[in-house]
Amino acid sequence: MEFAARPAAVSGALSGVIMMMVVKLMKLAGMRLQLNLVRIWGAMLGLRGTPMLFAGWIVHLIVSAAIGVAYAGIFRLAGAARRTWLWGLSIGVVHWIFAGFFLAGVSATWAKTSEERPVPGPFAVNFGLDDVIAFFMAHLVFGTIVGILYPLVSRRRRGVPGR
């Protein structure tokens, strides 16, 4: 598969939105989730209230786009031309591990943010099992969706109709 940064970024940003929608569905299904990635991103910027949420979404989309580009690079390096959804799912596990350690780092610097909430801890363990499961599932969803969207968006860019 040929590498294309713009379709990868678009796929990553869209996957970031879908990831957050899935988390919202988990909450609606009765999971008691405390982890809110958008709040974390905004709080890291020292913001509160509506500006925190708005900035958090912008940062989430930018980070998701950048991670989508990384996934596309891995697809290219691995020679993944087929079953990119499965590659995405697999990379999603690695992504979850890195994100879990990122949350550990966030927790270590949490006192320096304007957020007055409990720290998530690595892999959101301080919030309980529901959050740990949701955090894991969200990253699997992200990877799978990038794996589905990236080839489709890349084909459209080249003028090749999707299958």
Question: How would you describe this protein?
Answer:
With 163 residues, the chain is mainly α. It has one domain. Helices cover 72% and strands 0% of the residues. The protein is built from five helices and no strands. It has helices at 5-28, 37-44, 49-78, 84-109, 129-158. Helix 4 (84-109) crosses helix 5. The two termini are 15 Å apart.
Gist of the model:
This protein is mainly alpha-helical and 163 residues long.
Share in helix: over 70%
If helices are DSSP runs of H or I spanning 4 or more residues, what is the number of helices? 5
The description of the largest β-sheet is:
none
Uncertain ranges: none
Strand content: under 5%
Task: Tell me the span between the first and last alpha carbons.
Answer: 15 Å
Radius of gyration: 16 Å
Structure keywords:
single chain; 163 residues; mainly alpha; globular
Q: What does the secondary structure layout of this molecule look like, with pairings?
A:
Elements (H helix, E strand, L loop, with lengths): L4 H24 L8 H8 L4 H30 L5 H26 L19 H30 L5
